[in-house]
Write a structure and sequence with these properties.
- This protein is an alpha/beta fold.
- The protein folds into two domains: 2-197 and 337-421, 3-Layer(aba) Sandwich (Aminopeptidase); 199-334, Alpha-Beta Plaits (2-Layer Sandwich).
- The protein has helices at 2-11, 13-25, 36-49, 121-141, 165-170, 223-243, 303-320, 344-357, 372-377, 404-421, and strands spanning 53-58, 72-79, 82-92, 111-112, 115-117, 146-154, 181-184, 192-197, 199-208, 260-268, 288-297, 326-334, 337-338, 362-366, 384-386, 401-403.
- The protein binds zinc ion.
- Zinc ion is lined by residues 92, 123-124, 157, 186, 370.
- The site of zinc ion (ZN) has 6 residues, from helix 4.
Length: 427
């Protein structure tokens, strides 16, 4: 299989390049979520010409959806000549803000020495383009295939996927009766299969005190000192406990192969932003201090345990520390997701990688979450992996790029995976 797919995809190199450039030139910035309709129309033109039936789906009522920034998604489906499984390629169309430090036009799609530059080049318009070319080549070479191929372009992955994959999953687009295998072409490198991701729990903790004159702090109660005690408890109890945990999740990089917690922000007392005022601060004991925590957890840790670990520690402080009062507000949570590496889609993509790349595939898991969570948890479809071209570390960076040869190799892996999952029905 390798030879004909590789050769046919190489012949379409120029098409692959211009497709990737066209996608980069549509600035689908999120936030606020611009040009989703435009990119869906572009994909509609392309995929309709290739024989796909398309559907536009607006995620009405999703966070951020409004008439100025509607959350448009597209789902395209190509039916094979015979009955069989459906393989779905899901790519998010949104990109993150540009940021500083660029030496290339972030929406120019410039090609230089085999690399295409632009915001979203690697995360993940290059992966989307590779999956389109892979599907088109597969259909041309295997017109008698069994099953169906779907390609979706979805909104808002960078802000949680609620206006994209989560919405489609709620509407039944990832029902296992409709779709059996999902490949998400996120930039995990062309020789790795990503089985899933860790979970996340975000919460705000507030400690309370009592305002008083700063010269007589003993007449009040300092909320910042109470928060200091919380942070001390994290250092002495929570961080060592998290670090001791091991996982069977092959998370990369190595440092993320455990539970982690970032303290996202801390604030107590008077507002720091004093504008252009040169006034000195007044002297007060702060009566409130807040932190936001970002706790990433493993497939082995139930969410209830993750919550309880922090809550118990706060309750301990309440018992041990005079006048300690707190509030904990959960902001959001995402459950971990991990598919079986011997499951149909993971094993097939791994086999195809080995054939195309000439060495065994590496199985990895992602430190951060992506849309697999919605396909798994809302869609109830576990047979899903992330596989696509691009260097993960370039995502969201200035001068982001995607290598044309990497896209060709990974499109070959995708086409060859299609051949294994959707066999020829005329034989
Ligand atoms: Zn991405």
């Amino acid at each position: 299989m390798r030879k004909p797919f590789h050769a046919a995809i190489k012949e379409r190199r120029d098409d692959l390049i211009s497709l990737t450039q066209d996608l980069i030139k549509i600035p689908t910035l999120n936030p606020p979520g611009t040009n989703y309709r435009l990119i869906c129309e572009y994909l509609n033109d392309r995929l309709s010409q290739s024989g796909f039936e398309t559907q536009f789906v607006r995620a009405e009522g999703a966070p951020g959806d409004c008439d100025i920034y509607p959350r448009w998604n597209i789902v395209a489906r190509h039916e094979g000549r015979f009955k069989g499984d459906c393989v779905h390629f899901n790519s998010h169309t949104d990109v993150v803000e540009v940021g500083a430090g660029w030496t290339r036009d972030p929406f120019g799609g410039e090609l230089h020495e085999g690399k295409i530059y632009g915001r979203g080049a690697c995360d993940m318009k290059g992966g989307l383009a590779a999956s389109i070319i892979a599907a088109e080549v597969f259909i041309d070479l295997n017109p008698n295939y069994c099953g169906a191929i779907e390609i979706s372009g979805t909104a808002d992955e960078e802000s949680g996927g609620y206006g994209g994959v989560a919405y489609l999953a709620e509407k039944g687009f990832f029902d296992p009766k409709r779709v059996q295998h999902v490949i998400i072409p996120e930039p995990l490198n062309k020789d790795r299969v990503c089985l899933g991701h860790r979970g996340g729990w975000w919460a705000e903790i507030e400690t309370f005190g009592e305002i008083a004159h700063g010269s007589m702090p003993f007449l009040g109660d300092c909320a910042v000192r109470h928060m200091g005690a919380v942070l001390e408890k994290f250092e002495s109890d929570l961080y060592p406990a998290m670090k001791a945990r091991t996982t069977e999740m092959p998370v990369v990089p190595e440092g993320a192969r455990t539970s982690t917690m970032n303290i996202n922000s801390i604030h107590g007392g008077q507002a720091e932003d004093r504008g252009d005022s040169s006034a000195l601060p007044s002297h007060c004991v702060p009566d409130s201090c807040r932190i936001v925590i970002d706790r990433r957890f493993l497939v082995e840790e139930p969410l209830e345990d993750v919550r309880a670990e922090v809550t118990n520690l706060l309750e301990d402080l309440k018992n041990d520390r005079p006048k300690f009062e707190y509030a904990l507000r959960e902001l959001n949570h995402v459950l971990p997701s991990m598919t079986d590496k011997d499951g149909p889609v993971a094993a097939t993509v791994a086999e195809a990688i080995e054939e195309v790349m000439g060495k065994p595939a590496e199985f990895v898991a992602s430190p951060g979450t992506y849309d697999q969570k919605h396909i798994d948890r809302i869609g109830k479809l576990e047979n899903c992996v992330a596989y696509g071209p691009g260097v993960l570390e370039l995502a969201h960076k200035p001068d982001e790029w995607i290598g044309v040869d990497d896209m060709i190799d990974s499109a070959t892996v995708m086409a060859s995976s299609l051949a294994k999952l959707l066999p020829d029905g005329s034989n």
